[in-house]
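In response to the reviewer comment on reproducibility (Comment 2.3), we provide here a single inverse folding case reported in full, input and output, so that an independent group could reproduce the run without further information from us. The structure tokens appear first.
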């Protein structure tokens, strides 16, 4: 039996994820109180449900603290439980709530909307450590749908190494475990011929590979990951996200993410995401 627990901050896209999972054939349950999780799983297992998606978030109240223990217990029983945690920066969440005019679930008439967001972030911090993170701050709904489909295709028995390019001018991605800054590498943006291209295009690749700083930094980042990745594997980590940042997230960071993915793809389960190239 495969169970996907969808959690995260209100307004971060959980409804979109549940719709994707339902379209993929999952039996979906929204806003389940944590104390009912074991009973529901047992019931659906007896009914022969092979794929189940359950949304659990701050609306469940004080029993949320029970979730990590329940997840570990279900996994011990041999159930394939994956946790997908969605988040976004406070500015984005406030904007989304302002546009929809919806009331935040933690609103009590005493806290401002940003204060509600931060209180929810704190309440969910322990849940976020259980699984795979997606920062939806700069994502379109279609990009989020695509990334969720990538998540479904993963083999949970192996660690997933995610290389993510981004632009510092858009802010740090919240889902990163490691962040490397490659802005010291000469920037193709200042060549008018290369400006409209990306780190996926041959002329940009050729430009970057002529830079001694780029070759040296790529080797250093690769060495760091090679040295420490086995420790995360021994720690039974299911996911590790390495974010590579340049100014706009279009040229240098894209190149670095692609080259690092090539290096580790033969040995590990690898995903690549380019935040600056999504639409």
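Designed residues, in position order:
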């Amino acid at each position: 039996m495969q169970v996907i627990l969808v959690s995260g901050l209100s307004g971060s896209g959980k409804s979109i994820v549940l719709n994707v999972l339902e379209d993929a054939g999952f039996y979906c349950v929204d806003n389940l109180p944590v104390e009912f999780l074991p009973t529901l799983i047992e019931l659906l297992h007896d009914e022969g449900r092979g794929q189940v998606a359950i949304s659990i978030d701050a609306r469940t109240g004080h029993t949320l603290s029970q979730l990590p223990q329940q997840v570990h217990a279900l996994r011990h029983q041999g159930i394939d439980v994956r946790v997908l945690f969605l988040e976004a920066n406070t500015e984005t969440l406030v904007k989304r709530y302002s546009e929809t005019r919806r009331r935040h679930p933690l609103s009590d008439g005493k806290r401002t909307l940003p204060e509600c967001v931060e209180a929810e972030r704190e309440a969910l911090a322990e849940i976020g450590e259980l699984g795979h993170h997606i920062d939806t701050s700069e994502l379109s709904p279609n990009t989020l749908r695509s990334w969720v489909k990538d998540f479904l295709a993963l083999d949970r028995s192996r660690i997933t190494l995610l290389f993510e390019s981004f632009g510092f001018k858009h802010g740090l991605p919240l889902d990163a475990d490691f962040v490397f800054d490659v802005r010291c590498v000469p920037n193709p943006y200042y060549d008018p011929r290369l400006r409209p291209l990306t780190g996926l295009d041959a002329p940009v690749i050729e430009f970057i590979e002529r830079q001694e700083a780029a070759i040296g930094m790529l080797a250093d980042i690769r060495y760091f990951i090679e040295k420490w990745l086995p420790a995360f594997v021994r720690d039974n980590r299911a996911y590790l996200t390495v974010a590579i940042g340049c100014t706009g997230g279009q040229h240098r960071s894209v190149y670095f993410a692609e080259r690092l993915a090539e290096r580790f793809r033969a040995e590990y389960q690898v995903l690549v995401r380019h935040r600056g190239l999504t639409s």
